[in-house]
Design brief:
With 270 residues, this protein is an all-alpha fold. The chain has 7 helices and no strands. Helix 2 runs antiparallel to helix 3.
Length: 270
C-alpha cells in the first residue's frame, strides 16, 4: 500500500469517527421528516396543478359546447328562411368546433386520469409521512430517555467528564488540606520541643527549657495541694469526735485515716 493510500485511509477513518461522534439521531430523523414533508408538498402541488389544468379544459369544453349549440341553431334558422348557403357555413363551423371539442375531451380524460393517480399517491405518501412522524417521535423520546439515563449512571459512577473534574478537584482539595494540617502539626511539635523559636511572641516568650520547668513545677503544685487537703481532713477528725453527744467515737473515713503527707520544704521541687 502506497503512502498516499494509507494517508487517505487514515483520513477517512478519522473523519468517519468524528462524524459518528457529531451525529445526533434526533437531528437526522428531523431532517428526514422534513424532506418527506417537502416531497409530500410537491406532490400535492402537482395534484393541484393537474386539477387546475383539468378545470381549464373543462371550461373550454363547456364553451365549445355552447358554440356547437349556437351553430346548430343558426343552420336550422338559415334553412327556415331559405338560406342554404348560410346553413352550410354554420354546419362547417360546427364541424371545426366539434373537432376541437373531441381533442379537449381526450386531454380532459388524460388529465383526469393523472389527477386520480397523483391524488392516490399523495394519500399514500401522506399516510407514510404520518407513520414516519409517529415513529420518529417515538425513537426521539426513547433516545432522549436513554441519553438521560446514561448521563445519570455516569454521574453516579463518576466516569462522566464533569463528575471526573469535580472528583479531581475534591481530591486535590483533600490532599492540600491534609498537607496543611500535617505542616501545622509539625510546626506545633517543633515549637513545643524548642527546635523552633517563637519570634512572634517577642523577647518575653518562653524557650523549651522554661516550658519543661513549668511542666515539672505544675506537677509539684498538684502534689502540694493533695498534701494540704489531707492535712485539713486529719485536723477536722477530733472536732467530729467531740460533737457526738453519747461519747461514741466515729470511725474516721479512709481519707481522714490516711497518713498526712509531709509538706514540701522550701528547697524541694522547682
Amino acid at each position: 500500500m502506497s503512502v498516499m493510500k494509507r494517508v487517505s485511509l487514515i483520513f477517512r477513518a478519522k473523519a468517519d469517527k468524528a462524524l459518528d461522534r457529531m451525529e445526533d439521531p434526533r437531528e437526522t430523523l428531523d431532517y428526514s421528516y422534513k424532506q418527506q414533508v417537502e416531497m409530500l408538498t410537491r406532490v400535492r402541488r402537482g395534484v393541484a396543478d393537474v386539477a387546475t389544468s383539468r378545470k381549464r379544459v373543462e371550461l373550454q369544453m363547456n364553451s365549445l359546447q355552447r358554440e356547437l349549440t349556437k351553430r346548430e341553431n343558426q343552420a336550422r334558422n338559415a334553412l327556415g328562411v331559405g338560406r342554404e348557403d348560410l346553413a352550410r357555413a354554420a354546419l362547417q363551423n360546427k364541424g371545426q368546433l366539434q373537432q376541437q371539442l373531441d381533442d379537449l375531451q381526450g386531454q380532459y380524460s388524460s388529465l383526469q386520469e393523472q389527477e386520480e393517480k397523483l391524488t392516490l399517491a399523495s394519500q399514500r405518501l401522506d399516510a407514510k409521512v404520518s407513520a414516519f412522524r409517529t415513529r420518529k417521535e417515538t425513537i426521539k423520546a426513547t433516545y432522549t430517555a436513554a441519553e438521560a439515563q446514561t448521563r445519570i449512571n455516569e454521574a453516579f459512577s463518576g466516569i462522566s467528564e464533569e463528575m471526573g473534574d469535580v472528583g479531581l478537584a475534591i481530591a486535590r482539595a483533600e490532599d492540600k488540606t491534609a498537607q496543611m494540617q500535617a505542616r501545622a502539626g509539625a510546626i506545633d511539635e517543633l515549637l513545643a520541643s524548642g527546635a523552633l523559636e517563637d519570634h512572634v511572641g517577642g523577647p518575653g516568650s518562653q524557650d523549651y527549657i522554661q516550658a519543661e520547668l513549668d511542666r515539672i513545677g505544675g506537677g509539684n503544685n498538684i502534689e502540694s495541694d493533695l498534701a494540704r487537703l489531707r492535712g485539713e481532713l486529719a485536723a477536722n477528725a477530733p472536732k467530729q469526735i467531740e460533737s457526738n453527744g453519747d461519747g461514741s467515737v466515729d470511725t474516721p473515713s479512709a481519707a481522714s485515716s490516711a497518713p498526712v503527707a509531709e509538706q514540701p520544704q522550701a528547697g524541694d521541687g522547682l
